[in-house]
Protein backbone atom coordinates (compact mmCIF):
# COMPACT_ATOMS: atom_id res chain seq x y z
CA UNK A 1 0.00 0.00 0.00
CA UNK A 2 1.48 3.39 -0.95
CA UNK A 3 2.28 5.80 1.86
CA UNK A 4 -0.42 8.37 2.40
CA UNK A 5 0.68 11.95 1.87
CA UNK A 6 0.86 13.94 5.11
CA UNK A 7 1.02 17.33 3.40
CA UNK A 8 -1.72 19.91 3.84
CA UNK A 9 -3.40 20.30 0.46
CA UNK A 10 -4.99 23.41 -1.02
CA UNK A 11 -8.25 21.84 -2.21
CA UNK A 12 -11.18 23.22 -4.15
CA UNK A 13 -14.43 21.36 -3.42
CA UNK A 14 -17.42 21.66 -5.77
CA UNK A 15 -20.70 20.43 -4.30
CA UNK A 16 -19.82 21.12 -0.66
CA UNK A 17 -23.43 21.61 0.44
CA UNK A 18 -24.69 18.33 -1.03
CA UNK A 19 -25.29 14.99 0.65
CA UNK A 20 -21.83 13.67 -0.19
CA UNK A 21 -19.89 16.90 -0.57
CA UNK A 22 -20.84 18.27 2.84
CA UNK A 23 -19.30 15.21 4.49
CA UNK A 24 -16.24 15.40 2.26
CA UNK A 25 -15.77 19.02 3.32
CA UNK A 26 -15.91 18.05 7.00
CA UNK A 27 -13.38 15.24 6.56
CA UNK A 28 -10.95 17.43 4.61
CA UNK A 29 -11.08 20.21 7.20
CA UNK A 30 -10.70 17.68 10.01
CA UNK A 31 -7.56 16.36 8.34
CA UNK A 32 -6.01 19.84 8.27
CA UNK A 33 -6.39 20.70 4.59
CA UNK A 34 -7.02 24.21 3.27
CA UNK A 35 -10.38 24.14 1.53
CA UNK A 36 -12.11 26.56 -0.82
CA UNK A 37 -15.71 25.55 -1.51
CA UNK A 38 -17.69 26.63 -4.55
CA UNK A 39 -21.30 26.86 -3.36
CA UNK A 40 -24.53 28.37 -4.63
CA UNK A 41 -25.80 29.18 -1.13
CA UNK A 42 -23.16 29.90 1.55
CA UNK A 43 -25.79 29.67 4.28
CA UNK A 44 -26.08 25.93 3.64
CA UNK A 45 -22.43 25.16 4.44
CA UNK A 46 -22.11 23.06 7.57
CA UNK A 47 -19.28 23.90 9.96
CA UNK A 48 -16.55 26.49 9.71
CA UNK A 49 -13.06 26.72 8.33
CA UNK A 50 -13.56 26.71 4.57
CA UNK A 51 -13.21 29.73 2.30
CA UNK A 52 -16.49 30.10 0.43
CA UNK A 53 -16.92 31.24 -3.16
CA UNK A 54 -20.47 31.81 -4.37
CA UNK A 55 -21.23 30.44 -7.81
CA UNK A 56 -22.06 27.20 -9.59
CA UNK A 57 -20.40 24.50 -11.65
CA UNK A 58 -21.77 25.94 -14.91
CA UNK A 59 -19.70 29.14 -14.60
CA UNK A 60 -16.74 28.09 -16.74
CA UNK A 61 -14.64 31.17 -16.03
CA UNK A 62 -15.09 30.90 -12.28
CA UNK A 63 -14.36 27.16 -12.27
CA UNK A 64 -11.28 27.61 -14.44
CA UNK A 65 -9.96 30.33 -12.13
CA UNK A 66 -10.51 28.26 -8.99
CA UNK A 67 -8.75 25.30 -10.56
CA UNK A 68 -5.81 27.43 -11.69
CA UNK A 69 -4.59 28.16 -8.16
CA UNK A 70 -5.48 24.78 -6.65
CA UNK A 71 -3.35 21.78 -5.84
CA UNK A 72 -6.47 19.62 -6.10
CA UNK A 73 -10.10 19.81 -7.15
CA UNK A 74 -12.67 17.41 -5.70
CA UNK A 75 -16.00 17.37 -7.53
CA UNK A 76 -19.13 15.87 -6.01
CA UNK A 77 -21.74 18.11 -7.67
CA UNK A 78 -24.23 17.25 -10.38
CA UNK A 79 -27.55 18.88 -11.31
CA UNK A 80 -29.23 15.46 -11.13
CA UNK A 81 -31.57 16.26 -14.02
CA UNK A 82 -31.68 16.36 -17.81
CA UNK A 83 -28.87 18.94 -17.87
CA UNK A 84 -26.41 16.69 -16.00
CA UNK A 85 -24.46 15.50 -19.03
CA UNK A 86 -23.94 18.97 -20.49
CA UNK A 87 -23.15 20.47 -17.09
CA UNK A 88 -20.57 17.82 -16.23
CA UNK A 89 -18.97 18.02 -19.67
CA UNK A 90 -18.60 21.79 -19.40
CA UNK A 91 -17.38 21.58 -15.82
CA UNK A 92 -14.72 18.96 -16.56
CA UNK A 93 -13.54 21.00 -19.53
CA UNK A 94 -13.17 24.10 -17.37
CA UNK A 95 -11.28 22.25 -14.63
CA UNK A 96 -8.90 20.61 -17.09
CA UNK A 97 -8.27 23.98 -18.76
CA UNK A 98 -7.44 25.54 -15.42
CA UNK A 99 -5.39 22.93 -13.57
CA UNK A 100 -1.64 23.31 -13.55
CA UNK A 101 0.62 20.36 -14.46
CA UNK A 102 0.95 18.01 -11.54
CA UNK A 103 -2.35 19.03 -9.91
CA UNK A 104 -4.99 16.51 -8.81
CA UNK A 105 -8.59 16.07 -9.97
CA UNK A 106 -10.89 13.72 -8.03
CA UNK A 107 -14.29 13.25 -9.66
CA UNK A 108 -17.48 11.47 -8.69
CA UNK A 109 -18.84 8.80 -10.99
CA UNK A 110 -21.16 5.93 -10.08
CA UNK A 111 -21.23 2.15 -10.07
CA UNK A 112 -24.32 2.03 -12.28
CA UNK A 113 -22.12 2.56 -15.36
CA UNK A 114 -20.78 -0.98 -14.89
CA UNK A 115 -24.18 -2.58 -15.42
CA UNK A 116 -25.21 -5.84 -13.81
CA UNK A 117 -22.88 -8.35 -12.17
CA UNK A 118 -22.39 -10.37 -9.02
CA UNK A 119 -18.70 -9.47 -8.62
CA UNK A 120 -18.21 -6.02 -10.13
CA UNK A 121 -14.75 -4.47 -10.12
CA UNK A 122 -13.15 -1.38 -11.59
CA UNK A 123 -12.21 -3.48 -14.63
CA UNK A 124 -15.75 -4.72 -15.35
CA UNK A 125 -16.70 -3.61 -18.89
CA UNK A 126 -19.11 -0.71 -18.88
CA UNK A 127 -22.77 -1.39 -19.60
CA UNK A 128 -24.63 1.66 -18.33
CA UNK A 129 -28.38 2.18 -18.33
CA UNK A 130 -29.60 5.15 -20.33
CA UNK A 131 -29.78 7.36 -17.24
CA UNK A 132 -25.99 7.45 -16.84
CA UNK A 133 -24.73 6.42 -20.28
CA UNK A 134 -23.30 9.92 -20.76
CA UNK A 135 -20.81 9.38 -17.92
CA UNK A 136 -18.52 6.93 -19.74
CA UNK A 137 -17.10 9.39 -22.27
CA UNK A 138 -16.53 12.13 -19.69
CA UNK A 139 -14.99 9.73 -17.18
CA UNK A 140 -12.55 8.42 -19.79
CA UNK A 141 -11.63 11.90 -20.93
CA UNK A 142 -10.89 13.10 -17.41
CA UNK A 143 -8.91 10.00 -16.40
CA UNK A 144 -6.74 10.26 -19.51
CA UNK A 145 -6.02 13.98 -19.16
CA UNK A 146 -2.27 14.51 -19.62
CA UNK A 147 -0.10 16.16 -17.02
CA UNK A 148 -2.44 15.85 -14.04
CA UNK A 149 -3.28 13.18 -11.46
CA UNK A 150 -6.89 12.41 -12.30
CA UNK A 151 -8.93 9.89 -10.29
CA UNK A 152 -12.52 8.65 -10.17
CA UNK A 153 -14.63 7.59 -7.18
CA UNK A 154 -17.66 5.46 -8.17
CA UNK A 155 -20.14 5.21 -5.29
CA UNK A 156 -22.78 2.56 -4.94
CA UNK A 157 -26.12 3.55 -3.43
CA UNK A 158 -25.24 6.01 -0.70
CA UNK A 159 -27.02 5.88 2.65
CA UNK A 160 -26.81 7.26 6.16
CA UNK A 161 -28.41 9.94 8.33
CA UNK A 162 -31.87 8.89 7.20
CA UNK A 163 -31.61 10.16 3.66
CA UNK A 164 -30.44 9.23 0.17
CA UNK A 165 -32.03 6.76 -2.25
CA UNK A 166 -32.78 4.15 0.47
CA UNK A 167 -35.39 6.48 1.97
CA UNK A 168 -37.53 5.69 -1.09
CA UNK A 169 -38.05 2.16 0.23
CA UNK A 170 -40.05 3.52 3.17
CA UNK A 171 -42.12 5.73 0.88
CA UNK A 172 -43.43 2.92 -1.31
CA UNK A 173 -47.15 2.34 -1.63
CA UNK A 174 -48.98 0.00 0.76
CA UNK A 175 -51.11 -2.53 -1.13
CA UNK A 176 -53.44 -5.40 -0.36
CA UNK A 177 -55.27 -6.58 2.76
CA UNK A 178 -53.50 -7.07 5.07
CA UNK A 179 -51.37 -4.22 3.85
CA UNK A 180 -47.94 -4.96 2.41
CA UNK A 181 -45.17 -2.63 1.28
CA UNK A 182 -44.63 -2.55 -2.46
CA UNK A 183 -41.05 -3.15 -3.46
CA UNK A 184 -39.04 -1.25 -6.04
CA UNK A 185 -39.09 -3.86 -8.78
CA UNK A 186 -39.17 -7.61 -8.12
CA UNK A 187 -36.96 -7.38 -5.05
CA UNK A 188 -34.49 -10.00 -6.23
CA UNK A 189 -32.01 -7.37 -7.41
CA UNK A 190 -29.05 -6.53 -5.16
CA UNK A 191 -27.97 -2.97 -4.43
CA UNK A 192 -24.34 -2.11 -3.79
CA UNK A 193 -24.20 0.26 -0.84
CA UNK A 194 -21.87 2.64 0.99
CA UNK A 195 -22.38 4.77 4.09
CA UNK A 196 -21.92 8.45 3.31
CA UNK A 197 -19.38 8.92 6.13
CA UNK A 198 -17.28 5.98 4.93
CA UNK A 199 -17.53 7.43 1.43
CA UNK A 200 -16.24 10.80 2.59
CA UNK A 201 -13.19 9.12 4.09
CA UNK A 202 -12.59 7.37 0.76
CA UNK A 203 -12.36 10.74 -1.01
CA UNK A 204 -9.67 11.79 1.46
CA UNK A 205 -7.79 8.52 0.93
CA UNK A 206 -8.07 8.92 -2.84
CA UNK A 207 -6.68 12.45 -2.64
CA UNK A 208 -3.71 11.49 -0.50
CA UNK A 209 -2.79 8.01 -1.74
CA UNK A 210 -4.33 7.35 -5.18
CA UNK A 211 -2.36 7.18 -8.42
CA UNK A 212 -3.10 8.93 -11.70
CA UNK A 213 -5.79 7.11 -13.66
CA UNK A 214 -7.14 5.18 -10.67
CA UNK A 215 -10.84 4.51 -10.36
CA UNK A 216 -12.29 3.11 -7.14
CA UNK A 217 -15.62 1.43 -6.58
CA UNK A 218 -16.92 3.10 -3.43
CA UNK A 219 -18.88 0.27 -1.85
CA UNK A 220 -18.86 -1.06 1.70
CA UNK A 221 -19.20 -4.72 0.69
CA UNK A 222 -22.83 -5.10 1.79
CA UNK A 223 -25.12 -5.96 -1.12
CA UNK A 224 -28.66 -6.47 0.21
CA UNK A 225 -31.54 -7.42 -2.03
CA UNK A 226 -34.35 -4.94 -2.41
CA UNK A 227 -36.65 -7.56 -0.86
CA UNK A 228 -34.46 -7.67 2.26
CA UNK A 229 -34.58 -3.90 2.47
CA UNK A 230 -38.33 -3.85 1.90
CA UNK A 231 -38.95 -6.46 4.58
CA UNK A 232 -36.84 -4.49 7.08
CA UNK A 233 -38.77 -1.34 6.23
CA UNK A 234 -42.10 -3.14 6.47
CA UNK A 235 -41.23 -4.31 9.97
CA UNK A 236 -40.44 -0.76 11.03
CA UNK A 237 -43.74 0.41 9.50
CA UNK A 238 -45.78 -2.12 11.47
CA UNK A 239 -46.50 -4.38 8.48
CA UNK A 240 -44.81 -7.49 9.94
CA UNK A 241 -42.31 -7.56 7.11
CA UNK A 242 -44.93 -8.07 4.40
CA UNK A 243 -43.83 -7.01 0.93
CA UNK A 244 -45.19 -7.29 -2.59
CA UNK A 245 -43.03 -7.40 -5.72
CA UNK A 246 -43.51 -4.87 -8.50
CA UNK A 247 -43.38 -5.79 -12.16
CA UNK A 248 -40.19 -4.27 -13.63
CA UNK A 249 -42.20 -2.68 -16.43
CA UNK A 250 -44.28 -0.96 -13.79
CA UNK A 251 -41.15 0.33 -12.07
CA UNK A 252 -39.88 1.85 -15.30
CA UNK A 253 -43.29 3.30 -16.12
CA UNK A 254 -43.44 4.89 -12.67
CA UNK A 255 -39.84 6.07 -12.29
CA UNK A 256 -38.50 6.24 -15.85
CA UNK A 257 -34.75 5.93 -16.35
CA UNK A 258 -34.19 6.19 -12.60
CA UNK A 259 -36.35 3.09 -12.15
CA UNK A 260 -34.31 1.27 -14.80
CA UNK A 261 -31.15 1.98 -12.81
CA UNK A 262 -32.75 0.80 -9.55
CA UNK A 263 -33.58 -2.51 -11.24
CA UNK A 264 -29.89 -3.30 -11.84
CA UNK A 265 -28.70 -6.40 -9.99
CA UNK A 266 -25.26 -5.40 -8.70
CA UNK A 267 -22.83 -6.80 -6.15
CA UNK A 268 -19.30 -5.60 -5.37
CA UNK A 269 -16.79 -5.76 -2.53
CA UNK A 270 -14.77 -2.58 -3.01
CA UNK A 271 -11.61 -4.62 -2.48
CA UNK A 272 -9.35 -2.36 -4.54
CA UNK A 273 -9.93 0.70 -2.36
CA UNK A 274 -9.14 -1.34 0.73
CA UNK A 275 -6.00 -2.84 -0.75
CA UNK A 276 -4.60 0.21 -2.53
CA UNK A 277 -5.69 3.02 -0.23
CA UNK A 278 -6.06 1.26 3.11
CA UNK A 279 -9.71 2.35 3.24
CA UNK A 280 -11.64 0.75 6.10
CA UNK A 281 -15.40 1.30 5.94
CA UNK A 282 -16.73 0.81 9.46
CA UNK A 283 -20.27 2.19 9.67
CA UNK A 284 -23.36 0.00 10.15
CA UNK A 285 -24.77 -1.70 7.06
CA UNK A 286 -27.88 -0.36 5.37
CA UNK A 287 -29.97 -3.17 6.85
CA UNK A 288 -28.64 -2.29 10.30
CA UNK A 289 -29.54 1.37 9.84
CA UNK A 290 -33.05 0.37 8.79
CA UNK A 291 -33.39 -1.87 11.86
CA UNK A 292 -32.14 0.90 14.15
CA UNK A 293 -34.97 3.22 13.10
CA UNK A 294 -32.72 5.76 11.40
CA UNK A 295 -35.00 5.81 8.34
CA UNK A 296 -38.33 5.68 10.17
CA UNK A 297 -40.77 8.31 8.85
CA UNK A 298 -41.04 11.32 11.13
TrEMBL record:
One of its GO terms (cellular component) is cytoplasm. Gene3D superfamilies: NAD(P)-binding Rossmann-like Domain (3.40.50.720). Residues 15-88 form the NAD(P)-binding domain. InterPro entries: NAD(P)-bd_dom (IPR016040), NAD(P)-bd_dom_sf (IPR036291), NAD(P)-dependent_oxidoreduct (IPR051783). One of its GO terms (molecular function) is aldehyde dehydrogenase (NAD+) activity. Pfam families: NAD_binding_10. This is Nucleoside-diphosphate-sugar epimerase.
